[in-house]
Specification:
Oligomer: single chain
Structural class: mainly alpha
Order of helices and strands: EEHHH
Strand order of the largest sheet: 1-2
Shape: extended
Helix content: 40-55%
Number of helices: 3
Number of strands: 2
Bound molecules: zinc ion
Radius of gyration: 17 Å
Amino acid sequence: MKVKLKNVYYCDCCGKHTLTKFSIINHESHCTLNPNRTCRVCNNKDKACPMCKFSELQLKLKAGEIEHIMYDLQTEMKKYWAKKYDYEEVY
Ligand SMILES: [Zn+2]
Ligand SMILES: [Zn+2]
């Protein structure tokens, strides 16, 4: 019988865990529960970014400022990309 001990890496912000250090480092920098995150979608450059909005809501929920998140991230992301494409076609 082989017994292997493995390190489990946890995200400091949301508790997500994996066995690969790299993927959790990568996750942590974008984690929506990390107040100092770098946005994977807009690089913290776009105030209209749904991912940033969602992160804001998650942090509020964590802080107890709100009770639920009424936000459909997937739909909002779709709208966001649709708008972006329009923008790029016109200009
Ligand atoms: Zn996380
Ligand atoms: Zn963003």
